[in-house]
Design a protein that fits this description.
Elements: E1 6-8, E2 14-20, E3 23-34, E4 39-47, H1 50-64, E5 65-67, H2 85-95, H3 102-120, H4 130-141, H5 154-175, H6 201-208, H7 214-226, H8 230-234, E6 241-242, E7 245-248, E8 251-253, E9 263-265, E10 273-276, H9 279-287, H10 304-318, H11 327-338, H12 343-350, H13 354-361, H14 366-375
Parallel strand pairs: 1-5
Antiparallel strand pairs: 1-3, 2-3, 3-4, 6-7, 7-10, 8-9
Length: 376
């Protein structure tokens, strides 16, 4: 047997599915250690089936790797003097690939590239003192969006801060570099949280009455009467449409590392559900037969920008105040709550967790308190 080219300490791997111009392919991702002790991610790409991907992994490990316990010659810098933030960020993001969906890693990478690396790319991690981190946070909270010219929302800035805090915690766990950010107090909210935008069923009926394109008529009807995320509607195939139900087991993401305009992944909640649909959707699907492989779009799913433009144009045509497309999901949940649905039912119908439903929509149940008290 030829000499090993890599060490591996585990036979665990993950399969990642993505769409290319030649169809669906699978990548195998796993961790290896080079012969000089450097740990990194390895990807074997472009297999046409899961079986071939697994075989490709087995062949690679069998011919090129030696299975050992942990890292036999792991390099360490006992003084931690030379570790730069930029290098650690890239190592951290690579380590997330086996724990997070590609779209999640993509979002984190985008935030680090915009808000962290321009300030700390060449900074030694040991030099991230409490004072330095306070100055960074103060600058972050005074940053404006290049496109809108407005300050970023408190929620978005809190997400940026949380990502950086988690990264510094990883540095402390992995390399023993103290995380001084835990001592930096998070700023208070600048303004009150904006009220959730929703349409009533009457609002939607006014809107859908002017939608004259059958594709968009069906698409918006599914969004409003299923409460699913638009990526899950984008990803629907003809075989997902059943008698009285729809199977939601995948989503389309535009956040890709492969260079392709989109990829088909699992749903955000990692669930596969056959969800019942109301009569309005059933009647709509009798009229709209759909395309393939994508039920809406045919060869390729509808583009996000196209959908937003079309939605806004129909709002103006209907004479109704535009909301975000995602707010159709909120509108559906509001309708369910008004009809008496509990958290568990809402979570199952929209493909979310009960905890997230309570966090996002709990305030919509406030009116129920008075109704209950009045019945006593």
């Amino acid at each position: 047997m030829p000499a090993a080219e890599f060490y591996i300490s585990s036979t665990k791997y993950s399969l990642q599915e993505r769409m290319t111009r030649r169809g669906k392919v699978y990548d195998v991702v796993f961790r290896i250690v080079t012969l000089d002790g450097i740990e990194k991610q390895k990807k074997l790409s472009g297999f046409s089936s899961k079986t071939l991907a697994k075989q490709g992994y087995t062949d690679f490990v069998t011919s090129k790797c030696e299975l050992v316990k942990n890292n036999p010659i792991k390099k360490k810098d006992p003084t931690k003097q030379a570790l730069l933030v930029g290098d650690l960020v890239r190592e951290y993001l690579a380590s997330l690939s086996n724990l997070n969906k590609a779209s999640s890693v993509y979002g984190k990478q985008k935030i680090f590239k915009k808000f962290v690396l321009p300030y700390f790319e060449k900074t030694k991690a040991k030099d991230l003192t409490k004072e330095v981190l306070y100055r960074w946070q103060d600058g972050l909270w005074n940053t404006k969006n290049d496109r809108s010219g407005n300050f970023y929302s408190y929620k978005y800035l809190s997400t940026v801060r949380a990502f950086f805090l988690t990264f510094l915690g990883w540095c402390e766990s992995r390399y023993g570099i103290k995380n001084n950010f835990t001592e930096v107090i998070k700023p208070k909210k600048r303004v009150q949280k904006t009220k959730m935008q929703i349409w009533t069923r009457e609002d939607f009926e006014q809107f859908i009455a002017v939608v004259d394109d059958p594709v968009y008529h069906a698409f918006f009807t599914l969004l409003f009467f299923t409460g699913r995320r638009k990526g899950e509607i984008f990803a629907l195939a003809p075989e997902d449409i059943r008698q009285g139900s729809i199977v939601f087991d995948k989503s389309v993401t535009r956040k890709t590392f492969s260079g392709t305009p989109y990829e088909v992944t699992s749903t955000k909640a990692e669930k596969e559900q056959e969800t019942p649909i109301c009569r309005a959707v059933q009647e709509e699907l009798k009229r709209y037969k759909g395309d393939a492989p994508f039920f809406f779009g045919g060869e390729h799913p509808i583009a996000d920008n196209t959908l937003r433009r079309v939605f806004r144009n129909y709002c103006f045509k209907a004479g109704i105040q535009p909301i975000r497309i995602h707010d159709l999901r909120h509108s559906f949940v509001s309708m369910l709550i008004h009809l008496g649905a509990n958290f568990m039912v809402v979570a199952e119908l929209i493909g979310d967790t009960v905890d997230q439903v309570i966090k996002t929509y709990g305030h919509l149940y406030e009116s129920d308190k008075r109704a209950v008290i009045d019945r006593i």
